[in-house]
Amino acid sequence: MGSAAATPVLPASGPPGLPLLGHLLAFGRDPLAFLAQLRDDHGDFARWSLGPRRSLFISRPEHIAEFLGAVERTFEMVDLSWMLRQVAGESVVLSRGADWQRKRSLVQPAVRPRQVREYAATMVECGIAHADRWRDDQRIDVLDEMTALTQRIVLRTLFGSDLGDQGRVLAAAMAMAQQKIGAELRSVSQFLPGWVRTPARRRLLKAVATIDAEVNQLIADRLAGTGPAPGDDLLTRLFEARDEQGCPLSPKEVRDEAVTFWAAGHETTSTALTWTWYLLSRSPEARGRLTEELARVLGGRPPVFDDYERLDWTRQVVKEALRLYPPVWVLPATARQGATLAGAPVPVGTTVWCSPWTTHRDPRWFPDPEAFRPQRWDPDAQPAVPEHAWFPFGGGQRACLGARFAMVEATLLLATLAQRFHLHLDPDEPVPRPGLLLQPAERLQATLRML
């Protein structure tokens, strides 16, 4: 192992690595298997290195809770990708310190429960319109269909309209950007300085230029009063937000938050729904209970926001899908002065990693962890799941602001579509591909069966 990785980090062991590269090649080949192997071979604290980055991998829920709770105090978020910053700018996801606190206070009200209630009708309306286009025995690409649906929802909730051709241009550019970011996260190019323009980075910058042109025009039109009238959309809320000094977000800050919400607000949900359909297709019993609950609770009508709490099994299905296939599969942060874990100091500059993927599939917290069992999430289930053994939306102050939006959206969309159709997926076992999000490596094809 290189000298940086050999520096003691807690009483932790780790596998030998290559000079300079550390464990980058093994991590790049199969990040999920590599992290699981770290846990299995080296315990709850495993020392490793990602290139020159001295790292510590943690696996126990109580350590994860301590770690995530200390972000913004003794740990700071990692800039994993130059590409990601080109897309998200200085949004609340990537900002730090006082700037992060200010932006969080401005953005958070836009996704509070009362606002999510107002967006629920749009979610269901878009789900019904999408299902109206489906036909019995039709063949579909599941991720493409879920992406198109959640894109429409994010456009409606963010900008107040579908945007027509402009929305399609934005969607294509965003898809290109997310693809390139995911690829760079698995390669040595993540360590290259920003001025190095690889072919992938040039393609990303072209996509970002399109995103900027379209979103900045929407913002300019709204400011000039020539775009869609301000309404109950997120863009309006971002313009209306004021900090403690009464200052609004600048147009550039509105752009960064809008683009980040676009990316985080649809891709994570479409990914989660894709895995959910796969798991239901493999579990006739779980699908049967879902059909029964929808008939009993909804009686053939579309769901509304108040049904979210009534659809117990539907929510349990979504939670179990998020356990097995968390879209955000790894969370890193770097130690500052004074950082500790489990009572031991963590050297400044050490990157601490935790992974929903590995913790969610740890047999200590989830018996028979590979099995799809939504009943794990029954409030009376035993043994109870430890706190932070399930954390698909992160935790601490940096927990995903849109977690409530995402859970309501996934649950209501699943209920809306599953009332009318079953998706019978092809029998091939999908391989998860970790990039910016955890998505299937190959396309998941399904045949629609009308109920």
Automatic annotation (TrEMBL):
Belongs to the cytochrome P450 family. PANTHER family: BIFUNCTIONAL ALBAFLAVENONE MONOOXYGENASE_TERPENE SYNTHASE, CYTOCHROME P450 FAMILY 4. This is Cytochrome P450. Heme binds at C400. GO terms for molecular function: heme binding; iron ion binding; monooxygenase activity; oxidoreductase activity, acting on paired donors, with incorporation or reduction of molecular oxygen. Keywords: Heme, Iron, Metal-binding, Monooxygenase, Oxidoreductase. Its cofactor is heme. InterPro entries: Cyt_P450, Cyt_P450_CS, Cyt_P450_E_grp-I, Cyt_P450_sf, Cytochrome_P450_Monoox.
